[in-house]
Design a protein that fits this description.
Chain lengths: 70, 473
């Protein structure tokens, strides 16, 4: 799916609080009041979002670095 | 610091002044422009502007404007925890600024190492930091340059490199020099040039790119030929534009570098920004240099011939009709706060600029280790001043939207990669406004012939008779 950052193995995780399997759903990241959309593994009940290490160290880290100034 | 000491050291002229607003803000050290003796210096405000005042027993008082109006001098701070350079090539013997190499009293690591490839130049500018002429001085040969890269590598392995001069493109082996730097392990190599050869030779930019050049620091003083005639002795605007075009085609990032002189081009600050944005994404940013008085200059060294950092920031806001705001700019995380300003923006498809506010420089003014700021700058500069990874028509976010809301993550990533633009400026010091606190915090170091690293403003320092302290060593 386009704009999806969920790996099949992510969906084997359960939300600790709700005891429900994560599913791929829309999540929003915000930057200075703007919303950026992404499809991420989320808990269908409470909305908890799993950000994989790959994503955190990859694209999200790159965005952060690009937005970082000297 | 006790008041009595202050009064004893203060020059006669300062004591005579009765202005109630007059206040000593802080103290540093400087040199007498005549005898080069180290003397105390004071940052003094008259309520509006700030002056560096010093007094030599033999040669009298000197007062040089260092800050005019807003943003306010006392709010322009970015405290750092000093760091001794990990490798020092010189011993402390005579005291700062006479031990440069760097010595163990220095307070910052090298973020940019500058290598001067020649003294020759194909222009004879009325203003020239390096006082370049068509001298018969031989250029350092490729072995010497290899040695210089090696010395930088040993002291500051991950710093950025700027190749400078004279006019470095006069060397036909420039591609080889760039290749040598890349082989030595440097990831970001920038060329400081007047752009004439880039404009005149069709495949020249491509050959530099091929040897590993990332970025061109293009001397670009204005958008009218009057400015070039006044500063550089001839009409050059068409050449400058052609140079930008050639770099764009070759995939080399361009930074426009205007030297700002009051009465000559300070009124073109807004138009330079406008032109830079028109030429974006080839142009990656603009880097202003207020005139300083070392090297060759025709004007007398008087305060009305100086322009300070806050004046450039204010001019950016006024002359851009508010497209950028003074509050978009912040002091540097690497060098001393009084040395520079910068702001980073996203170029919006609808034509506006959106300031990027980063956490590290908007929060709380807590001192940060100097080398952490330096590393961040090395990374940020290399990314910002190189050509974007996404080129030409592939720029993200076409159309006229002025919002990033609702983009997906990949789209946003491409957008930021291709649309960031930097506006910055650095004020160099001369013998008149030299402030040893600033000098010790310096992160831009010139490699001397014998392989020492000399802070830029120490290297270029000349006394009242234009005699250098370091240049030529
Ligand atoms: S400027 Fe730095 S390197 Fe030079 S003498 Fe002063 S402390 Fe040492
Ligand atoms: Zn849950
Ligand atoms: Zn003196």
């Amino acid at each position: 799916m386009k704009n999806s950052y969920a790996n099949p193995e992510d969906l084997r995780w359960k939300c600790h609080k709700c005891d429900m399997f994560l599913s791929v759903g829309p999540a929003t990241l915000t930057y200075m009041g703007n919303t950026i959309n992404a499809q991420l593994p989320v808990c269908p009940q409470c909305g908890f979002v799993l950000v994989s290490e790959e994503l955190a160290l990859g694209k999200i880290a790159e965005v952060e670095q690009l937005l970082e100034d000297k | 610091m006790s008041k009595t000491v202050l009064i004893r050291l203060m020059p006669e002229t300062m004591k005579a002044d009765s202005s109630s607003e007059r206040r000593v803000l802080s103290q540093t050290e400087s040199l007498c422009p005549v005898c080069l003796k180290k003397i105390p210096a004071f940052r003094v405000t008259d309520g509006l502007d700030v002056y560096l005042e010093k007094h030599c027993e033999s040669h009298g008082p000197f007062s040089t404007v260092i800050w005019r109006k807003d943003p306010h001098f006392e709010t322009w701070t970015r405290p750092k925890i000093p760091i001794q350079p990990p490798v020092c090539y010189t011993e402390i013997t005579k005291g700062c600024p006479f031990d440069c190499g760097l010595c163990a009293s220095h307070r910052q690591i090298t973020c940019t190492a500058l290598i001067e490839l020649t003294k020759r130049c194909n222009l004879h500018c009325r203003y020239c930091f390096a006082s370049s002429q068509n001298l018969d001085d031989p250029d350092p040969d490729i072995n010497k340059i290899e040695f210089m890269f090696k010395r930088v590598r040993e002291a500051a392995p991950s710093c950025n490199i700027q190749l400078s001069g004279g006019e470095p493109t006069l060397r036909d082996d420039l591609p080889q020099v760039i290749g040598t730097g890349r082989q030595a392990g440097f990831g970001f190599i920038q060329l400081n040039t007047n752009g004439l050869r880039l404009a005149n030779e069709k495949d020249y930019a491509a050959s530099l790119k091929e040897s590993g050049l990332s970025s061109v620091f293009l001397q670009f003083d204005g958008v009218s030929d009057e400015v070039y005639k006044a500063l550089r002795g001839q009409a050059l605007l068409d050449k400058k534009r052609l140079a930008i075009e050639q770099c764009a085609r070759a995939g080399i990032g361009v930074v426009l570098v205007p030297m700002i002189v009051p009465g000559i081009n300070a009124h073109e600050i807004g138009s330079i920004l406008e032109l830079g944005l028109k030429e974006y994404p080839a142009v990656r940013g603009i880097h202003f240099q207020p005139v300083s008085y070392f090297g060759r200059h025709p004007e007398s060294v008087e305060n009305h011939n100086r322009i300070t950092i806050p004046e450039i920031i204010t001019a950016l806001e006024i002359q851009s009709n508010g497209m950028v705001a003074a509050s978009d700019f912040h002091p540097p995380g690497c060098e001393n706060a009084l040395c520079s300003f910068s702001g980073k923006f996203l170029v919006m498809p609808g034509g506006g600029l959106m300031p990027i506010v980063s956490e590290t420089n908007s929060c709380c003014n807590k001192p940060v280790r100097a080398d952490i700021g330096a590393r961040q700058t090395i990374f940020s500069v290399a990314g910002q001043w190189s050509a974007p990874k996404v080129q030409g028509s592939a720029i993200a976010g076409q159309g006229t939207t002025n919002s990033i809301s609702g983009m997906d993550l990949d789209g946003f990533l491409d957008f930021v990669r291709s649309r960031s633009f930097s506006i910055s400026g650095m004020a160099f010091q001369d013998i008149w406004n030299l402030d040893l606190d600033r000098l010790r915090d310096c992160c831009i170091h010139i490699v001397s012939n014998d392989g020492r690293l000399i802070p830029f403003c120490a290297y270029n320092l000349t006394d009242i008779q234009n005699k250098p302290i370091y240049r030529g060593q």
